[in-house]
Amino acid sequence: MASGLKALWALSMVLLVSNWQHWTCGKATPQVPCYFVFGDSLFDNGNNNYLSTPVKVNYLPYGIDFPTGASGRCSNGLNIADTIAEQLGFDSFITDFGVGGCTNFLDGVNYGSSGAGILDETGSLSGELFTMNIQLYNHKITVSRIGKQLGSDEVAKKYLNQCIYVTDMGHNDYLNNYFLDTYNSSQLYTPEKYAQLLIETYKTQLEDLYSTGARKIAVFGLVRVGCMPSNTLQHPNELDDNSCAYKLNEDIQIFNTKLQTLIKELDGKYEDAAFTYINSYEIDSDKTNEAFKFTRESCCNVMASGGVPCKSLTIPCANRSEYVYWDGAHFTEAKAWNFGKRAYKRQSSRDAYPYDISELVQLKLHDNDGDIVNHAQL
Ligand SMILES: *[C@@H]1O[C@H](CO)[C@@H](O)[C@H](O)[C@H]1NC(C)=O
Ligand SMILES: *[C@@H]1O[C@H](CO)[C@@H](O)[C@H](O)[C@H]1NC(C)=O
């Protein structure tokens, strides 16, 4: 009797999961049941607020255009991860993981943490943070909760298979490690060897993510860190024709090139999964940024010349839509939208490959029970 009831209950959970669209009565229906976000300060939606670190932005003018004010996002409003959530059809913000108390984890969780990187050492000198390894650990906590909520790990896996995963990692392995004298990585590794170390570590982490049930994974490359106002001001004698610090851009391009190869390899290796590369470097090009009036200036008043964070309670630029950069390193909401739209629906084949996120949503991948196999037919 008890086991019969249990089986019935499991069956009804399966029906519920396959009909997840009906859960959301009255709300907009997202295109996928859940959306998970791994990343650094480009994606952090408030996780660092919970940590003991000076690297947090829970004060105005951050959030000046956000419905609830300063949320911990490094932006005047939304960040790139938020714009993708909105395009996926989620009508509320994806919850941060924080210290693990989040209740709304079935929609997905944002694990992003400012300062974090692929390597555990990255950012370690600036305070607590959720490195990529910790973000993956936190995700396993979420996965186990989803298993409990849906009745079994198997049902949870089917559910998790349908979701979108985005990851944006590597900026801080340069900005908050390799490019700083306080870390020894630049003495230990050539740019080439260092990029290789990052890629090998990231590969293990992406395969770990796959093992938790992730099947639709968009991996963001690195933006033009040499064009960030903080870096152009700190490297005035190393600027190229576009007024960007070319050495920094050269180093991170080594990583980007290797990352593209890795994504292609993983996409080929796992037939039941799709990995795609979002070409952040291209989407952050000057050609794209021509839509903005100010491409090399921060909208807010930063703490020191060449610094990153905005000074607390200062008045930022009046029209945030005219600026690419909100502070010394992070995008305005306007640029985040411009970016997120191209990651979601590419404007050219160079923006995202083999899939953009809208195509990733539509892909029919076969699961272990056999069914559909039409991966790579788009
Ligand atoms: C480099 O720094 C790391 C910690 O950041 C330390 O574990 C390692 O021993 C150092 N290596 C050398 C060769 O100094
Ligand atoms: C702000 O800038 C945008 C983009 O240049 C422009 O379309 C808009 O009209 C400006 N808004 C105001 C209030 O000036």
From TrEMBL:
What does the UniProt keyword field contain?
Answer: Hydrolase, Lipid degradation, Lipid metabolism, Secreted, Signal
- What InterPro entries does the entry give? GDSL, GDSL_esterase/lipase, SGNH_hydro_sf, SGNH_plant_lipase-like
Single Gene Ontology BP term? lipid catabolic process
Record's GO cellular component terms: extracellular region
Where found? Secreted
Signal peptide positions on this chain: 1-19
What SUPFAM superfamilies does the record point to? SGNH hydrolase (SSF52266)
Q: Which Pfam families match?
A: Lipase_GDSL
Family the entry assigns: Belongs to the 'GDSL' lipolytic enzyme family.
Instruction: Report the protein name in the record.
Output: SGNH hydrolase-type esterase domain-containing protein
Classification from the root reads: Eukaryota, Viridiplantae, Streptophyta, Embryophyta, Tracheophyta
